[in-house]
Amino acid sequence: MPGTATVVANPFGTLSVQGGSLVGTTISNLQPNAVIQLGTTPGAAGSFAQIDFQGFDIGAGNTLTIRSGAPGQSVVLYNANAAAGAIAGLLQAQGGNGAPAPVIYLHNPNGITVAPGGAINGLAGLTVDTLGTTFTNGQTLVNQGTVDGGSALRLLGAKVNGGGAFKGNAIFLGTFGSANNPVNGAHFLSNGLQLWPSSGNSVALTLNLYGASPQFLNVKLNGNALVSMPSAWPGGSTSPPNNPPVLQGTSRPPGIPAPAYGGGSMIVQASGALTLAGGPTNNFVFPGGIVLKAVGDLNLNAVVITNGWTTNGQPFQGIFFESPNIISPGGNIQVLTNNLNWVNFSTLPHAPVRAWTLVQMGNGSAGYATADAVAPHLNTYSILSEAAANGQCYLCLINGNPVNMF
Questions:
Q1: Per residue in 348-391, pLDDT tens?
Q2: Rounded Cα gap, residues 295 and 323, in angstroms
Q3: How far apart are CA 108 and CA 130, in angstroms?
Q4: Where does the pLDDT of residue 344 fall: very low under 50, low under 70, confident under 90, or very high at 90 and above?
Q5: Rounded to 5 degrees, what are φ and ψ at 387?
Q6: How far is residue 79's CA from residue 55's CA, in Å, rounded to a whole number?
Q7: Residue 376 has what pLDDT?
Q8: Using an 8 Å Cβ cutoff, are 398 and 384 in contact?
Q9: Which residues of the chain are in CATH 2.160.20.10 domains?
Q10: Which pick of 128, 132, 210, 211 has the fewest CB atoms within 10 Å?
Q11: Angle at CA 213, nearest 5°, toward 208 and 214?
């Protein structure tokens, strides 16, 4: 069970502990199936209790419950020593006194591992955070069990890995490293983090990738998905901006090199339909190769998809759209990519396609040139990637004929 703890903030009234000792503001000797009961004062906007632990582990078969005493309560559980945390049992938020369960913020800057059979259940809202004092330091979040945030799950870490279930009707995933489960070698479509709705059959996923080096993201959404990765957040957000490629309507000035963070890769696949959400800037930005794959409809939703970061073209830095039905009811499909890289569709989309590639201009700047007739191609990512993983001649399967879809 977690170590000795100090209640450093408590706006909710008298707190009590079942299955442990509470003396003043010190909690100690937590036993299996311990309960920390919050007071009966409702939470005001922005208020939270904070409990700092000297070590945060929960062994198999053990449970720590954080129970509310009134509506609107939130609790920060912070690991204050230098050890990583391991959860093989259950950490859960629970409603009490007729109030909903509290919102939980679990923070360990030394890393958190949820073991097989372990679980964190915060169905009123859950943040699991392994970042340090800034957005660009911290350790890894590994999930081999279940992490369930109910209505809203927020994941923050230096890296996010594991084959367990991340559940939330809305999921925010932010990292300066990679987010994937690379256990199946070159079978890239089998290397995704497993994202599930907590209830229903849809997940709204927001991605935040902001590292100084190329990043690699691979996620599998089990159900329908609404996916957002805009170039700017709504007002009031404290999240760092996503790493920008060269955006539509802008250019990179002469003498400025390609960004060091360019050249990663992203796979986002859904077992149902996948729809893009453009956010306040109506764009989806990532300076690396992009694969968007859906078993159902792939709705690009007139969102401007941009990954242009190099004028030289690089292997695996194009874009793949894969679905039996690629649509954009709100307007043209608009894609801005790298010079010499392609925009690949598994089938002809049901919307016109406008394409631009990032090229070096006469003045030495990097800007976009219309590429409707040269960038779009008909190729299917799953066919090419699995052929390569199986040692087959994937180059023999590539269709090199451009298709003007405008």
A1: 999 999 999 999 999 999 999 999 999 999 999 999 999 999 99
A2: 6
A3: 5
A4: very high
A5: -60, -45
A6: 6
A7: 98
A8: yes
A9: 1-160
A10: 132
A11: 70
Tokens of 63: 């449970």
**Spelled out in words, what is the top-level CATH class assigned to the domain 1-160?**
mainly beta
Distance of alpha carbon 46 from alpha carbon 55, whole angstroms: 26
Alpha carbon of 97 to those of 14, 68, 126, 210: distances in Å? 14, 7, 21, 42
Residue 382 CA to residue 186 CA, distance in Å, equals 12
> Sign of the CA dihedral 192, 197, 198, 204?
positive
- Give the 3-state secondary structure of residue 395: helix
User: How far apart, in whole angstroms, are the C-alpha atoms of residue 158 and residue 111?
Assistant: 9
Cβ 38 vs Cβ 70: under 8 Å: yes
Chain position carrying tokens 């993201």: 217
Nearest CA to 51 out of 63, 66, 69, 40 is that of 66
Q: What is the residue-wise DSSP string for 295-361? A: SSEEE-TT-EEE----SS--TT-SEEEE-SEEE-TTS-EEEEEETT--EEESS--BS-EEEEEEEE-
pLDDT tens by residue, 281-297:
999 999 999 999 999 99
**What distance in Å separates the CA atoms of residue 391 and residue 397, rounded to the nearest whole number?**
13
Structure tokens at 406: 């405008």
At residue 72, the pLDDT reads 97
Q: What is the DSSP letter of 138?
A: B
Q: How wide is the angle at C-alpha 309 spanned by C-alphas 250 and 206, nearest 5°?
A: 90
Within 13 Å, how many C-alpha atoms sit on residue 231's CB side? 16
Position 333 confidence tier, pLDDT thresholds 50, 70, 90 = very high
Q: What is the pLDDT of residue 149?
A: 98
